[in-house]
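[09:14] KT: can someone run the structure on this one? pasting the chain below
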Amino acid sequence: MDDVEAVTRAVLTASRLLVAVSARSLASVEDRVTLPQFRLLVVLSTRGAAKLVLLAEWLAVSPSTAMRMVDRLIAIGLVDRQTNPDNRRETVLQLTPEGMRIVEVVMNRRRQEIASIVERLAPEQRAALIAALTAFSEAGGEPDAPSRPVEHPLGWA
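[09:31] RB: done, structure tokens below
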């Protein structure tokens, strides 16, 4: 088996664990938001306020799909539509304080569970994991997670 296949298998195995951790962390709010809607909230929290077309691009969905998710999140008070201060003809989408709170709660639960798993690794395994996951995330174009549990570019993490 070549190294690409071995790495792919290892990442797929780790991704099952991370999906399980993610699902458990989202369980407390699943009556309010779906996993795709939560992803939208996370994208807004990490990248900041955005126009719908850009948000759809970041999520790799059609603008109409993004609009349906946004409309639902606006209806339940987690996202807000504001006039763009740089161009009054445009609107931008941003998280509400309640949207920020939801992301913080879920991400703090996720962070705690991942930390408990990482604590079981030897220090040299942790260092190797940091290097490997950083390189993997950079290759995939994913922005860094906040270094602190509560850190917000536009008021939240």
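[09:33] KT: thanks! Residues 149-157 have pLDDT under 50 and may be disordered.
[09:34] RB: yep, looked fine to me
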